[in-house]
Protein backbone atom coordinates (compact mmCIF):
# COMPACT_ATOMS: atom_id res chain seq x y z
CA UNK A 1 0.00 0.00 0.00
CA UNK A 2 1.39 3.34 -0.97
CA UNK A 3 0.85 6.43 1.16
CA UNK A 4 -0.89 9.65 0.13
CA UNK A 5 2.52 11.34 -0.07
CA UNK A 6 3.78 8.67 -2.49
CA UNK A 7 0.56 8.71 -4.53
CA UNK A 8 0.62 12.48 -4.86
CA UNK A 9 4.29 12.51 -5.86
CA UNK A 10 3.59 10.05 -8.69
CA UNK A 11 0.46 11.94 -9.76
CA UNK A 12 2.25 15.30 -9.88
CA UNK A 13 5.21 13.90 -11.81
CA UNK A 14 2.82 12.47 -14.38
CA UNK A 15 0.79 15.67 -14.66
CA UNK A 16 3.95 17.74 -15.08
CA UNK A 17 5.26 15.42 -17.81
CA UNK A 18 1.98 15.99 -19.69
CA UNK A 19 2.68 19.74 -19.83
CA UNK A 20 5.02 20.17 -22.80
CA UNK A 21 7.85 22.41 -21.57
CA UNK A 22 10.40 21.70 -24.30
CA UNK A 23 13.27 24.17 -24.30
CA UNK A 24 14.86 24.29 -27.75
CA UNK A 25 17.31 26.97 -26.73
CA UNK A 26 15.95 29.19 -29.53
CA UNK A 27 13.76 31.90 -28.03
CA UNK A 28 11.43 32.25 -31.00
CA UNK A 29 10.48 28.56 -30.85
CA UNK A 30 9.84 28.31 -27.10
CA UNK A 31 6.20 28.51 -26.02
CA UNK A 32 4.61 29.19 -22.66
CA UNK A 33 5.02 25.66 -21.29
CA UNK A 34 7.18 26.72 -18.37
CA UNK A 35 4.65 29.30 -17.21
CA UNK A 36 1.83 26.75 -17.54
CA UNK A 37 3.82 24.24 -15.50
CA UNK A 38 4.59 26.92 -12.90
CA UNK A 39 0.86 27.76 -12.76
CA UNK A 40 0.08 24.08 -12.25
CA UNK A 41 2.49 23.90 -9.29
CA UNK A 42 1.10 27.17 -7.91
CA UNK A 43 -2.44 25.76 -8.03
CA UNK A 44 -1.41 22.56 -6.24
CA UNK A 45 0.40 24.56 -3.54
CA UNK A 46 -2.60 26.89 -3.13
CA UNK A 47 -4.89 23.88 -2.53
CA UNK A 48 -2.72 23.16 0.53
CA UNK A 49 -2.73 26.80 1.64
CA UNK A 50 0.85 27.48 0.56
CA UNK A 51 1.49 30.90 -1.01
CA UNK A 52 3.94 31.23 -3.87
CA UNK A 53 5.17 33.80 -6.37
CA UNK A 54 5.23 33.24 -10.10
CA UNK A 55 7.98 35.27 -11.76
CA UNK A 56 8.29 35.62 -15.52
CA UNK A 57 11.67 36.71 -16.88
CA UNK A 58 9.93 37.01 -20.29
CA UNK A 59 6.39 36.17 -21.31
CA UNK A 60 5.92 32.40 -20.99
CA UNK A 61 9.22 31.83 -19.18
CA UNK A 62 7.81 31.35 -15.70
CA UNK A 63 9.51 30.22 -12.49
CA UNK A 64 7.74 29.71 -9.17
CA UNK A 65 9.09 30.34 -5.66
CA UNK A 66 7.56 29.40 -2.29
CA UNK A 67 9.00 29.67 1.21
CA UNK A 68 8.00 27.48 4.16
CA UNK A 69 9.22 28.75 7.55
CA UNK A 70 11.31 26.42 9.70
CA UNK A 71 11.51 26.06 13.47
CA UNK A 72 15.20 26.89 13.93
CA UNK A 73 15.46 30.62 13.34
CA UNK A 74 19.26 30.53 13.55
CA UNK A 75 19.71 27.93 10.82
CA UNK A 76 20.37 29.06 7.26
CA UNK A 77 17.57 28.37 4.79
CA UNK A 78 17.70 25.40 2.41
CA UNK A 79 16.88 25.95 -1.25
CA UNK A 80 15.21 22.99 -2.97
CA UNK A 81 15.09 23.51 -6.73
CA UNK A 82 13.92 21.69 -9.83
CA UNK A 83 13.80 22.94 -13.40
CA UNK A 84 10.47 22.76 -15.21
CA UNK A 85 11.84 22.72 -18.77
CA UNK A 86 12.92 19.61 -20.64
CA UNK A 87 15.11 18.95 -23.67
CA UNK A 88 13.49 18.34 -27.09
CA UNK A 89 12.26 14.92 -28.16
CA UNK A 90 12.51 13.06 -31.44
CA UNK A 91 9.20 11.20 -31.31
CA UNK A 92 10.17 8.55 -33.83
CA UNK A 93 12.79 7.23 -31.40
CA UNK A 94 10.21 6.72 -28.65
CA UNK A 95 8.06 3.63 -28.08
CA UNK A 96 5.87 5.59 -25.63
CA UNK A 97 4.42 9.05 -26.11
CA UNK A 98 7.04 11.41 -24.67
CA UNK A 99 4.36 13.57 -23.02
CA UNK A 100 1.94 10.74 -22.24
CA UNK A 101 3.36 9.78 -18.83
CA UNK A 102 2.35 6.16 -19.47
CA UNK A 103 3.18 3.42 -16.97
CA UNK A 104 4.19 0.00 -18.27
CA UNK A 105 5.78 -2.92 -16.41
CA UNK A 106 6.48 -0.75 -13.39
CA UNK A 107 8.18 2.06 -15.33
CA UNK A 108 6.90 5.59 -15.87
CA UNK A 109 7.84 6.85 -19.35
CA UNK A 110 8.11 10.47 -20.43
CA UNK A 111 10.38 13.42 -21.08
CA UNK A 112 11.37 14.67 -17.67
CA UNK A 113 10.91 11.30 -15.89
CA UNK A 114 14.41 11.69 -14.43
CA UNK A 115 15.40 15.18 -15.71
CA UNK A 116 13.71 16.42 -13.70
CA UNK A 117 9.95 16.57 -13.36
CA UNK A 118 10.38 13.64 -10.99
CA UNK A 119 11.93 15.94 -8.40
CA UNK A 120 9.55 18.84 -9.15
CA UNK A 121 6.57 16.54 -8.49
CA UNK A 122 8.23 15.02 -5.43
CA UNK A 123 9.09 18.26 -3.64
CA UNK A 124 5.61 19.60 -4.48
CA UNK A 125 4.09 16.53 -2.80
CA UNK A 126 6.38 16.93 0.23
CA UNK A 127 5.41 20.61 0.64
CA UNK A 128 1.72 19.62 0.64
CA UNK A 129 2.43 16.75 3.05
CA UNK A 130 4.05 19.18 5.52
CA UNK A 131 1.05 21.53 5.29
CA UNK A 132 -1.46 18.69 5.64
CA UNK A 133 0.26 17.08 8.63
CA UNK A 134 1.27 20.31 10.36
CA UNK A 135 4.96 19.41 10.03
CA UNK A 136 7.37 22.31 10.56
CA UNK A 137 10.78 21.63 9.00
CA UNK A 138 13.89 22.56 10.95
CA UNK A 139 15.16 25.07 8.42
CA UNK A 140 13.34 27.57 6.26
CA UNK A 141 12.73 25.81 2.95
CA UNK A 142 12.72 27.79 -0.28
CA UNK A 143 11.12 25.79 -3.09
CA UNK A 144 12.05 26.92 -6.60
CA UNK A 145 10.55 25.54 -9.82
CA UNK A 146 12.68 27.01 -12.55
CA UNK A 147 12.62 27.86 -16.25
CA UNK A 148 15.42 27.44 -18.77
CA UNK A 149 17.93 25.17 -17.03
CA UNK A 150 18.47 23.20 -20.21
CA UNK A 151 19.76 26.30 -22.01
CA UNK A 152 22.01 27.52 -19.24
CA UNK A 153 19.38 28.94 -16.90
CA UNK A 154 19.69 32.40 -18.41
CA UNK A 155 15.92 33.03 -18.19
CA UNK A 156 15.47 31.02 -14.99
CA UNK A 157 17.92 30.70 -12.11
CA UNK A 158 20.41 33.12 -13.69
CA UNK A 159 17.75 35.78 -14.16
CA UNK A 160 16.35 35.35 -10.64
CA UNK A 161 19.78 35.56 -9.02
CA UNK A 162 20.46 38.74 -10.97
CA UNK A 163 17.06 40.41 -10.59
CA UNK A 164 15.33 38.89 -7.55
CA UNK A 165 18.09 37.83 -5.14
CA UNK A 166 15.86 38.67 -2.14
CA UNK A 167 13.83 35.55 -2.91
CA UNK A 168 16.86 33.56 -1.71
CA UNK A 169 17.67 35.65 1.37
CA UNK A 170 19.27 33.61 4.13
CA UNK A 171 19.80 30.53 1.94
CA UNK A 172 23.08 28.75 2.64
CA UNK A 173 22.67 25.39 0.87
CA UNK A 174 20.69 23.91 -2.00
CA UNK A 175 19.47 20.48 -3.05
CA UNK A 176 18.71 19.56 -6.67
CA UNK A 177 20.08 17.44 -9.55
CA UNK A 178 22.32 15.53 -10.54
CA UNK A 179 22.76 12.67 -8.09
CA UNK A 180 20.93 10.68 -5.44
CA UNK A 181 20.34 7.63 -7.64
CA UNK A 182 21.76 4.27 -6.66
CA UNK A 183 24.61 2.46 -8.40
CA UNK A 184 26.10 -0.90 -7.43
CA UNK A 185 28.88 -0.40 -4.90
CA UNK A 186 30.56 -3.79 -5.37
CA UNK A 187 31.48 -5.67 -8.53
CA UNK A 188 30.08 -8.97 -7.24
CA UNK A 189 26.37 -9.23 -8.19
CA UNK A 190 25.79 -11.18 -4.96
CA UNK A 191 26.83 -8.07 -3.01
CA UNK A 192 23.67 -5.96 -3.11
CA UNK A 193 25.08 -2.86 -1.41
CA UNK A 194 24.24 0.37 -3.19
CA UNK A 195 26.05 3.69 -3.39
CA UNK A 196 23.92 6.83 -3.64
CA UNK A 197 26.03 9.44 -5.37
CA UNK A 198 25.80 13.04 -4.19
CA UNK A 199 27.24 15.74 -6.43
CA UNK A 200 29.21 18.06 -4.16
CA UNK A 201 30.94 19.79 -7.04
CA UNK A 202 30.23 20.61 -10.68
CA UNK A 203 32.69 21.25 -13.46
CA UNK A 204 32.68 24.78 -14.83
CA UNK A 205 31.89 25.66 -18.44
CA UNK A 206 33.83 28.23 -20.42
CA UNK A 207 34.08 29.29 -24.04
CA UNK A 208 37.15 30.70 -25.72
CA UNK A 209 38.12 31.72 -29.24
CA UNK A 210 41.57 31.15 -30.70
CA UNK A 211 42.55 33.43 -33.53
CA UNK A 212 45.50 33.78 -35.82
CA UNK A 213 46.37 36.79 -37.97
CA UNK A 214 48.64 36.53 -40.94
CA UNK A 215 49.33 38.06 -44.36
CA UNK A 216 46.46 38.05 -46.77
CA UNK A 217 47.73 36.94 -50.17
CA UNK A 218 46.77 35.31 -53.41
CA UNK A 219 46.77 31.51 -53.29
CA UNK A 220 49.26 31.36 -56.13
CA UNK A 221 51.89 32.97 -53.88
CA UNK A 222 52.13 30.90 -50.66
CA UNK A 223 53.51 32.70 -47.60
CA UNK A 224 55.07 31.47 -44.37
CA UNK A 225 52.65 33.70 -42.52
CA UNK A 226 49.42 31.81 -43.25
CA UNK A 227 46.76 32.30 -40.57
CA UNK A 228 44.96 29.10 -41.57
CA UNK A 229 48.06 26.97 -41.10
CA UNK A 230 49.02 28.57 -37.81
CA UNK A 231 45.53 28.20 -36.44
CA UNK A 232 45.29 24.59 -37.61
CA UNK A 233 48.49 23.77 -35.75
CA UNK A 234 47.10 25.30 -32.57
CA UNK A 235 43.79 23.47 -32.94
CA UNK A 236 45.59 20.17 -33.46
CA UNK A 237 47.74 20.83 -30.40
CA UNK A 238 44.70 21.57 -28.22
CA UNK A 239 42.85 18.55 -29.56
CA UNK A 240 45.77 16.27 -28.82
CA UNK A 241 46.56 17.66 -25.39
CA UNK A 242 45.65 15.80 -22.22
CA UNK A 243 45.49 17.97 -19.15
CA UNK A 244 46.95 16.40 -15.99
CA UNK A 245 44.85 14.44 -13.49
CA UNK A 246 43.58 16.62 -10.63
CA UNK A 247 42.37 14.82 -7.53
CA UNK A 248 39.69 17.15 -6.24
CA UNK A 249 38.20 16.31 -2.82
CA UNK A 250 34.98 14.99 -4.42
CA UNK A 251 36.86 12.75 -6.88
CA UNK A 252 39.21 11.47 -4.18
CA UNK A 253 36.31 10.61 -1.87
CA UNK A 254 34.62 8.70 -4.67
CA UNK A 255 37.85 6.85 -5.49
CA UNK A 256 38.48 5.99 -1.83
CA UNK A 257 35.03 4.43 -1.36
CA UNK A 258 34.89 2.56 -4.68
CA UNK A 259 38.55 1.58 -4.42
CA UNK A 260 37.89 -0.13 -1.10
CA UNK A 261 34.65 -1.79 -2.25
CA UNK A 262 36.12 -3.05 -5.51
CA UNK A 263 39.75 -3.62 -4.60
CA UNK A 264 41.05 -0.96 -7.02
CA UNK A 265 44.09 1.23 -6.46
CA UNK A 266 43.18 4.17 -8.72
CA UNK A 267 46.81 5.25 -9.06
CA UNK A 268 47.47 7.94 -11.70
CA UNK A 269 48.72 5.16 -13.99
CA UNK A 270 45.80 2.79 -13.42
CA UNK A 271 43.12 5.48 -13.14
CA UNK A 272 41.66 5.21 -16.64
CA UNK A 273 41.55 1.39 -16.65
CA UNK A 274 40.26 1.20 -13.08
CA UNK A 275 37.49 3.68 -13.84
CA UNK A 276 36.61 1.72 -16.98
CA UNK A 277 36.13 -1.40 -14.85
CA UNK A 278 33.29 0.34 -12.96
CA UNK A 279 30.99 -0.24 -15.95
CA UNK A 280 28.32 2.41 -16.51
CA UNK A 281 29.33 4.19 -13.31
CA UNK A 282 32.46 5.30 -15.13
CA UNK A 283 30.43 7.46 -17.51
CA UNK A 284 29.74 9.74 -14.54
CA UNK A 285 33.25 10.13 -13.20
CA UNK A 286 35.43 9.42 -16.24
CA UNK A 287 35.29 13.04 -17.37
CA UNK A 288 35.97 14.46 -13.90
CA UNK A 289 39.63 13.60 -13.55
CA UNK A 290 40.95 16.43 -15.73
CA UNK A 291 40.21 19.77 -17.29
CA UNK A 292 39.27 19.54 -20.96
CA UNK A 293 39.42 21.93 -23.91
CA UNK A 294 37.71 20.75 -27.08
CA UNK A 295 37.81 22.53 -30.46
CA UNK A 296 34.25 22.74 -31.82
CA UNK A 297 33.91 25.52 -34.42
CA UNK A 298 36.31 26.63 -37.17
CA UNK A 299 36.18 29.73 -39.33
CA UNK A 300 38.61 30.99 -41.98
CA UNK A 301 38.49 32.23 -45.54
CA UNK A 302 35.71 31.98 -48.10
CA UNK A 303 37.54 31.78 -51.39
CA UNK A 304 39.79 28.91 -52.43
CA UNK A 305 42.38 31.08 -54.17
CA UNK A 306 42.74 33.66 -51.37
CA UNK A 307 44.86 33.23 -48.25
CA UNK A 308 42.77 34.96 -45.58
CA UNK A 309 44.26 37.35 -43.06
CA UNK A 310 42.33 35.78 -40.16
CA UNK A 311 41.39 32.35 -38.94
CA UNK A 312 39.59 31.41 -35.72
CA UNK A 313 38.45 28.41 -33.76
CA UNK A 314 36.13 28.09 -30.79
CA UNK A 315 36.81 25.90 -27.78
CA UNK A 316 34.43 24.26 -25.32
CA UNK A 317 36.29 24.21 -21.99
CA UNK A 318 35.34 22.27 -18.87
CA UNK A 319 37.16 23.31 -15.70
CA UNK A 320 37.62 21.58 -12.37
CA UNK A 321 37.21 23.57 -9.14
CA UNK A 322 40.03 26.02 -8.50
CA UNK A 323 41.70 25.21 -11.80
CA UNK A 324 40.86 28.33 -13.81
CA UNK A 325 44.27 29.96 -13.70
CA UNK A 326 46.18 26.70 -14.14
CA UNK A 327 44.06 25.86 -17.17
CA UNK A 328 44.59 29.32 -18.68
CA UNK A 329 48.34 28.98 -18.30
CA UNK A 330 48.44 25.47 -19.78
CA UNK A 331 46.22 26.46 -22.69
CA UNK A 332 48.48 29.43 -23.42
CA UNK A 333 51.45 27.10 -23.57
CA UNK A 334 49.70 24.50 -25.72
CA UNK A 335 48.51 26.92 -28.43
CA UNK A 336 51.95 28.48 -28.76
CA UNK A 337 53.08 31.84 -30.13
CA UNK A 338 51.13 33.96 -32.53
CA UNK A 339 47.71 32.80 -31.39
CA UNK A 340 45.35 35.11 -29.58
CA UNK A 341 43.04 33.61 -26.93
CA UNK A 342 39.83 35.51 -26.23
CA UNK A 343 37.58 34.33 -23.42
CA UNK A 344 33.82 34.24 -23.83
CA UNK A 345 31.34 33.13 -21.17
CA UNK A 346 33.20 31.76 -18.21
CA UNK A 347 31.40 29.90 -15.47
CA UNK A 348 33.82 28.50 -12.93
CA UNK A 349 33.24 25.16 -11.25
CA UNK A 350 31.18 24.97 -8.08
CA UNK A 351 32.41 23.20 -4.99
CA UNK A 352 30.73 22.42 -1.68
CA UNK A 353 32.41 20.70 1.27
CA UNK A 354 32.30 16.88 1.10
CA UNK A 355 32.07 16.69 4.89
CA UNK A 356 29.21 19.13 5.50
CA UNK A 357 26.58 18.07 8.07
CA UNK A 358 23.98 17.84 5.30
CA UNK A 359 25.80 14.77 3.92
CA UNK A 360 25.04 13.05 7.23
CA UNK A 361 21.37 14.07 6.89
CA UNK A 362 21.22 12.51 3.42
CA UNK A 363 22.87 9.35 4.74
CA UNK A 364 20.41 9.05 7.65
CA UNK A 365 17.43 9.54 5.35
CA UNK A 366 18.69 6.81 3.00
CA UNK A 367 19.55 4.39 5.82
CA UNK A 368 15.94 4.20 7.02
CA UNK A 369 14.92 2.60 3.69
CA UNK A 370 18.24 1.05 2.69
CA UNK A 371 20.35 0.18 5.77
CA UNK A 372 23.36 -0.83 3.64
CA UNK A 373 23.08 2.18 1.31
CA UNK A 374 26.10 4.47 1.32
CA UNK A 375 26.02 8.14 0.31
CA UNK A 376 29.17 8.89 -1.70
CA UNK A 377 30.32 12.32 -2.93
CA UNK A 378 31.33 12.72 -6.55
CA UNK A 379 32.08 15.50 -9.00
CA UNK A 380 29.48 16.09 -11.72
CA UNK A 381 31.14 16.50 -15.13
CA UNK A 382 28.29 18.77 -16.26
CA UNK A 383 26.78 21.96 -14.93
CA UNK A 384 23.35 22.76 -13.43
CA UNK A 385 21.50 25.77 -12.03
CA UNK A 386 23.72 25.43 -8.95
CA UNK A 387 26.30 27.55 -10.79
CA UNK A 388 23.92 30.53 -10.63
CA UNK A 389 23.06 30.04 -6.96
CA UNK A 390 26.78 29.75 -6.17
CA UNK A 391 26.98 33.48 -6.98
CA UNK A 392 24.87 34.06 -3.85
CA UNK A 393 27.30 31.98 -1.80
CA UNK A 394 24.95 28.98 -1.80
CA UNK A 395 26.56 25.53 -1.63
CA UNK A 396 24.70 23.22 -4.02
CA UNK A 397 24.32 19.46 -3.68
CA UNK A 398 22.95 17.12 -6.36
CA UNK A 399 20.76 14.53 -4.62
CA UNK A 400 17.44 13.33 -6.00
CA UNK A 401 17.02 9.99 -4.22
CA UNK A 402 16.14 7.05 -6.49
CA UNK A 403 16.69 3.42 -5.55
CA UNK A 404 16.89 1.49 -8.80
CA UNK A 405 17.77 -2.06 -9.89
CA UNK A 406 21.47 -2.89 -10.15
CA UNK A 407 21.60 -2.72 -13.95
CA UNK A 408 19.46 0.40 -14.36
CA UNK A 409 21.62 3.36 -15.41
CA UNK A 410 19.76 6.50 -14.33
CA UNK A 411 22.35 8.84 -15.80
CA UNK A 412 21.86 7.26 -19.24
CA UNK A 413 18.18 8.28 -19.11
CA UNK A 414 19.04 11.97 -19.16
CA UNK A 415 18.07 13.47 -22.55
CA UNK A 416 17.51 9.93 -23.98
CA UNK A 417 14.58 8.52 -25.95
CA UNK A 418 12.16 6.47 -23.82
CA UNK A 419 13.34 8.32 -20.72
CA UNK A 420 11.88 6.34 -17.83
CA UNK A 421 11.99 5.74 -14.10
CA UNK A 422 10.75 2.85 -11.96
CA UNK A 423 7.51 3.80 -10.18
CA UNK A 424 8.73 2.28 -6.90
CA UNK A 425 11.85 4.48 -7.18
CA UNK A 426 9.54 7.51 -7.21
CA UNK A 427 7.83 6.26 -4.06
CA UNK A 428 11.25 5.78 -2.46
CA UNK A 429 12.18 9.29 -3.59
CA UNK A 430 9.12 10.79 -1.88
CA UNK A 431 9.82 9.01 1.43
CA UNK A 432 13.51 9.88 1.53
CA UNK A 433 13.03 13.48 0.35
CA UNK A 434 10.38 14.01 3.05
CA UNK A 435 12.89 12.92 5.71
CA UNK A 436 15.66 15.08 4.28
CA UNK A 437 13.56 18.24 4.06
CA UNK A 438 12.13 17.77 7.53
CA UNK A 439 15.46 17.32 9.29
CA UNK A 440 18.07 19.01 7.09
ZN1 LIG B 1 18.29 18.54 -15.46
UniProtKB/TrEMBL annotation:
Keywords, alphabetical: Hydrolase, Metal-binding, Zinc
Provenance organism: Microbacterium psychrotolerans
Keyword Cytoplasm assigned: no
Gene3D superfamilies linked: 1.10.150.900, 3.30.70.360, Zn peptidases
Residue ranges constituting the Peptidase M20 dimerisation domain according to the UniProt record: 201-335
InterPro entries: ArgE/DapE_CS, Bact_exopeptidase_dim_dom, Peptidase_M20, Peptidase_M20_dimer, Peptidase_M20A
PANTHER family hit by this protein: ACETYLORNITHINE DEACETYLASE, PEPTIDASE M20 DIMERISATION DOMAIN-CONTAINING PROTEIN
Top-level taxon in the UniProt lineage: Bacteria
Protein name: M20/M25/M40 family metallo-hydrolase
Pfam families the UniProt entry points to: M20_dimer, Peptidase_M20
Names of required cofactors: Zn(2+)
Family: Belongs to the peptidase M20A family.
PROSITE patterns from the UniProt entry: ARGE_DAPE_CPG2_1 (PS00758), ARGE_DAPE_CPG2_2 (PS00759)
Transmembrane as UniProt keyword: no
